[in-house]
Please model this.
Amino acid sequence: MMEQTANQQEQAAWLRLMLTDGVGNTSARKLLAAFGLPTAIFEQSTAALGQVVSERQALALKQLPEGLDKQIARCDEWLALDARTDHRTRRIVTLGDALYPSALLTLPDPPLVLWLLGRIDLLEAHGWPAGISIVGSRNPTQQGDKNAFAFAHSFADSGLCVISGMALGIDAAAHSGALSAGQSSEESSRESLLTIAVVGTGLDRVYPKQNLELAHRIADHGLVVSEFQLGSPPAAANFPKRNRLIAALGLGTLVVEAALQSGSLITARECLEVGKDVFAIPGSIHIAQSKGCHALIKQGAKLVESAADVLEELRIERGTRAGHTEQGLRGTSAGAHISPTHAQHPLVLAMGFDPVSFDVLQARVDIDAAALQVQLLELELDNVILRVPGGLYQVAL
Model:
């Protein structure tokens, strides 16, 4: 095996933590809080690990997961396919990476690793965009399909990135509507992500296959995201997990059509759990695809009849660019009150009130990069600091 760079070693450690049998995202987060980066976790004794997780998990952490070498090789091959000439690029982003979406830190179990495909250049330049999640039936009515397309077009035209799951039906219509907004404005396509597809498979495959051409268009003008390792098939258990990311990435979630028992309602519940608005479009009382929306409205979801209704609730003026805002994506966690203890933290004091880069902050506090990354991650998980566009950090005021 070729000698790995420091970045490759760090990435391999994140993959090892992710693949360790019996250690999910929640337990991994406890380990990160206790020991720092994954490389430090794997240096601990079984006894030390057992103070944070169960004995079985501690023993599993001391073993190399089955398939780890294969996944590392697969990731290297996938990244080597990067086609930078047309702006479509690939990236593996870990929980400790500056490019990791802050919105996902509101979740109790944020993914340790994300695979990204698409306009990474726009993320690096502007950060994660303000967005609206759109979900609904895989078998919509003709009117439901038209509604999803039209609402998404209006949202994208107003600067909101449209987030969905690239499934057949409403998801596909929403992505297509957002992409159509970019066709009339070369500038909007160039300066902002039009749409984000959060998928339930590895990014080395497209599911469903009918959406292959759509997936390529999304990667050209937006982003495809997955928390599942390369090679992951479309397992049924993956899609509820995917739904929580869709809910967390948006400022709110619009349900266009949904049956009473559907993944769209799971996404709506996830949205409410992270303190964000749920919107629903009413429909005919005689069709099953309206039942879920009507149930949500009875439970307090906002009934909407036009995109303007949603934009008004989100305080976004129609026809203006919503812009990119990591802070907006953090929902109720943005602007969190900082405790007196955190206010006196050396990094908070060194950071001041203006956005600062990692390198500048390291020069101010004079500690090694690994230790600084650990401390920044801890403060971010506690909602004390935010990541803002340009890979900068800022105190959450």
Notes: The chain is about 45% helix and 10% strand.
